[in-house]
Amino acid sequence: MSTYATHPCEAPVTFLCGHIFHKRRAYHGPTMQVPSVPSSLSGAVPPWSNNAPVPCKLCRENKLWEYDWRRRVWMKKDNVCNGNNHPKTHHPTAIMLPTPDTSHVPYQRVYEPAEDSFLLLDTLSSPSETAFLSSRFASPSPSSPSPAPLVLEVGPGSGVVIAFLTAHASTIFGGPHVLTTAIDVSPFACAATNLTVSKAVSENTSTSGFWTSATQGDLVSPFRPGSVDVLVFNPPYVPTPDLPAPPPTGLQELKDKTTFEEDSHLLELTYAGGRDGMETTDRLIEALPGVLSERGVAYILLCAQNKPEEVKGRIRAMGGEGKWKAETVGTSGKQAGWEKLQIVRVWR
């Protein structure tokens, strides 16, 4: 058993990497070598989570450990730590739900899952958000069941996020009675999403909700007012001089072959956000009061260049002060003192 230097007045906080920290002394490090991490601390959690073990701040700042967004696990840096001090990898805990398979997706024309996609997965499956969603859409009583919520992802790309929500509906929403759908301007993204969700549901039949289909369209235009209960949007958020035009009419139907220019244009649609990276997102925000139900909630991803504090301020001012709420519920961590990516929850 390892012996740690302890503060006489305060119990230590033990981190995933084996270090301890005392808030009063700001003490870091064990007095003896840590041969291993107890199995109870061997779970991986998102870097923004405060309710489960993570590598300590000093290890993260010195990049002894890094969060692998693709695998959604904490990993030590092989060139810094030796195996006696830190285990090489840590596997997800029970709350880290498996990521849907997207190996079938044609990434030359469909957005490949990246850090922003995985931040959405980690945020939506975090204890705080699953508690919020389960409470918000719970039936008031067994005799008066609540209508099944309709979950919509706008711009699903590969479909990894909506597949995750569909496959793990029981865990995230507190029950399997959830309808899910998606809409994208790209027919290739719609086809990829349908396959991604189908595969994820077939692998998680005991926890999955009810998938309808991915539809080609512009934002929320096909949906009736007040019909959407949960809306998820990973927008094109990169600031660009202009917005790309919608897909040309020749791509309204799926084709076996596309030109390099057509593929490049489809990918440009996934990231180019126009002025401040907000032109498409602003259109979606303006549509929220109409498309969301009274209990509806939206999750919107923003980057630092989108000026998220200003965006949240505009949302809170919609319909009069106090009617709408907007709070950051997930971040990808800080770079140079500012949050790189964040997930904003919007609700009444």
Automatic annotation (TrEMBL):
Cellular component terms per the entry's GO annotation: eRF1 methyltransferase complex
Keyword set, alphabetical order: Methyltransferase, S-adenosyl-L-methionine, Transferase
GO molecular function: nucleic acid binding; protein methyltransferase activity; S-adenosylmethionine-dependent methyltransferase activity
InterPro entries: DNA_methylase_N6_adenine_CS, Euk-Arch_PrmC-MTase, SAM-dependent_MTases_sf
Biological process according to GO: methylation
Family the UniProt entry places it in: Belongs to the eukaryotic/archaeal PrmC-related family.
Name used for this protein in its record: S-adenosyl-L-methionine-dependent methyltransferase
